[in-house]
Amino acid sequence: MGNASDIIKVGRFAPSPSGRMHAGNVFTALISWLSVRKAGGRWILRIEDLDPQRSRQEYARLIEDDLHWLGLDWDEGGLSDAGAHGPYSQSERGELYEAALSRLMATGRVYGCGCTRADLRDTEAPHASDGRVIYSRKCKPEVMPCYEPVASGKSLRLWVDDESVTYVDGLYGERCVNLARECGDFVLRRADGAWSYQLAVVVDDALMGVNEVVRGNDLLDSAAQQIYLYRLLGYEPPRWMHLPLVCNGQGVRLSKRDGAADMGALRARMTARELVGYLAYMGGLLPEPIACEPRELIGEFDVSRLPRTRSIRLTI
Ligand code: GLU
Question: Is residue 16 in some structural domain?
Answer without folding.
Answer: yes
